Amino acid sequence: MSRSFLSRRCTVSVAGLALTIALAPTAAAQNPVARQMQAQSDAAQTLLGPDAMRVFVCGSASPLGADAKREQACIAVIAGGRLFLVDVGAGANTNLQLGGLPMAGLHTVFLTHFHSDHIASIPDVNLSSWVGGRPRPLVVAGPEGVETVVEGLNLAYGPDRSYRIAHHGKELLPPELGTMMARTIEPGVVLDEEGVRVTAFAVDHAPVDPALGYRFDYGGRSVVVSGDTIRTQSLIEASKGADLLLHDVMAQDVVQMLQSARDQSGDERLSKLLTDVQTYHASTTAVAALAKEAGVRQLVLYHLVPAMPNPMLNGRFLQGMPEGTVLAADGMLFELPTNSDEIQLRQLVQR
Q1: pLDDT digits (tens, 9 = 90+) for 138-168
Q2: What confidence tier does 16 reach under pLDDT thresholds 50, 70, 90?
Q3: Which residues of 2-23 are buried (b: 16+ CB within 10 A; e: fewer)?
Q4: Which of 164, 167, 225, 249 has the fewest Cβ atoms within 10 angstroms?
Q5: What is the dihedral of CA 271, 111, 197, 224, to 10 degrees?
Q6: Separation CA 93–CA 255 (nearest Å)
Q7: What is the model's pTM?
Q8: Is 349 helix (H, G, I), strand (E, B) or coil?
Q9: What angle do the packed helices 158-168 and 146-156 form, to 10 degrees?
Q10: Do residues 151 and 119 lie in contact, with contact meaning Cβ atoms separated by under 8 Å?
Q11: Which residues contact 76 (CB under 8 A, 6 or more apart)?
Q12: What distance in Å separates the CA atoms of residue 140 and residue 5, rounded to the nearest whole number?
């Protein structure tokens, strides 16, 4: 089993699943493990309810910096009885498991681009949703090049799938549902089903090209996920009037201080990397101006560059931001009731 699937922090285990099946209803009601698992199952079904669009932060860090409470980039959007993921960075599946998200309802993984911190846990979510009972192959959609990524992951994890099928049987783990399907998409409406519309738009993460962001519309509510980008007009247009904009952000002054320290120490290699990082992420100033111009109802900052080792420094990201801006933390859940202006925020997972 993968690390994130059998982590001690994982809220669902094969042993626990077997226990739930084995227990009679009366005994299960008296068993704390069974009660907890039943509560998680009930909560997962609630998250799929048609009364709201929900956004779960399953990863808010970037590769620069280190914060033990943050995993790499991943945003979950739940709408129309389906779960969608935008990027799946390293460790993101742990938060999905801790939050008890309905992995059997995972419909599509939308990739913004193919940097490692946006794709590393795709095999983990494929496995957890397959084991969870996903009824169709997992679709991984993204810009040109996604076929190569998915083909490589399917090949690399082929032996893993074969071991699990041999162990648990084809009835429990149908082989055809364990192999992911790639779908190449371009800017425009990429999904319009059961009241859920997903629109892809181009962003600027050069030299990464192409790169995409996504807008989700459901029940009169709208959520935009920027992916990695600098300020672009396409992102402004896609974000106009959105209820929620989740945007990557760079504390440029902090990155420049790190760069200066490396210059002084003679570390030319890392200094060059820190210089380059500043060219393809939006600064706090740029993000604040973009959100105001687009007229978004609430701005949420994620993919923090750098992830701060000391939470006391996180205030730098909020300087100059519009009132009500939220600094994302792993485990946050935003709920947007349908046909309403309300945005509810709670911490679903404590990290």
Answers
A1: 999 999 999 999 999 999 999 999 999 999 9
A2: very low
A3: eebbebeebbbbeebeeebeee
A4: 167
A5: -20
A6: 28
A7: 0.88
A8: coil
A9: 50
A10: no
A11: 55, 56, 57, 58, 83, 84, 85, 86, 96, 101
A12: 20
CA distances from 45 to 39, 90, 102 (A): 10, 26, 7
To which residue do tokens 């952000």 refer? 249
Secondary structure class of 279 (helix, strand, coil): coil
Q: Tens digits of per-residue pLDDT, 199-217?
A: 999 999 999 999 999 999 9
Residue 229 reports pLDDT greater than 90: yes
Residue 328 DSSP one-character state: -
Residue 21 confidence class, pLDDT cut points 50, 70, 90: very low
State the average pLDDT for the chain: 89
Q: Note whether 322 and 294 are within 8 A (CB).
A: no
Long-range contacts of 10-19 (CB under 8 A, 24+ apart): 10/94, 10/97, 10/98, 11/40, 11/97, 11/98, 11/100, 12/37, 12/40, 12/97, 12/100
